[in-house]
UniProtKB/TrEMBL annotation:
One of its GO terms (molecular function) is diguanylate cyclase activity. NCBIfam families: GGDEF (TIGR00254), sensory_box (TIGR00229). Residues 3-45 form the PAS domain. It comes from Mycolicibacterium obuense. This is Diguanylate cyclase. GO terms for cellular component: plasma membrane. GO terms for biological process: cell adhesion involved in single-species biofilm formation; negative regulation of bacterial-type flagellum-dependent cell motility.
Amino acid sequence: MRRLHLTEATIERVTDMIIWLDRDGRYVFVNAAACSLLGYTADELSRLRVVDVDPFFDDEIWREHWRDIVERKSFVIETVNTTKDGTDIPIEVTVNYVDFDGEEYNCSIVRDITERKVVESRLLALNEEITRLSITDDLTGIANRRRFDAVLADFVDNHAATGDPLSIIMIDIDHFKVFNDHLGHSAGDECLRQVASVLDRIAAARGGLAARYGGEEFLCLLPRADEAAAAEVARQCQIAVAELEIAHPASMTAAALTVSAGVLTCRRPFDIARILTGVDAQLYRAKREGRNRVVHGPDTGSAAPST
């Protein structure tokens, strides 16, 4: 008798919910913890079913769940219960199949996992932020070289399968070293941010990606863009930078900031190393021919000019 009393006391005092359900999902027994968490009395719960309390269950899902209980006997799931006042509470349910006096039941141990979910959400957000920072250029906020390399590899695989052309633009701010020397690094940083912003906007509008390649060089990756489309995007970038009207008093090209752009359009078979080498050659050709221009075509030059 004492053991029975101890068992009854344990059931009523444990903080986890103990819930017995019949094969139809009706509440047969609930302990005090279940009533406290859900806000119902035991009598009220006896008139309810799981589908009345769990928003993820309907009659069909419950029937599938019951078949799973009979087959697997014991397992753990995570779901949600809605309290009497309408609050959704995440829970962990340890399911246990019980055959008692010829009747089948699900005896569940149910735990409120709200705090765990809060911690998991914070960790997920932290991991997402770490991932974002790892693929974002600190200064400009656009994609960095790591992100660009990953997207380029994905695009190459995709375009190799579809046969679509893939275009890339390499853009360099003209005479940026003397810009920094003349106006200071703070002005240089702000210049990079403004240029990056317009390149990012233009590339994104075309379904592409803009990235800071390093220093004052940027890359724009344009999926399914042929020569004409890529050259037009490059000209848009050139015009958009000019419209920023960033004064460049030390420039040997213009009174305001300008850019040079090299454009390369590729078709399968693709070679990533040759793609980057090829577009770099187009950029240096643009610089060699006087800067503040867009060049698209085979490289006929040799050594790169000084910055």
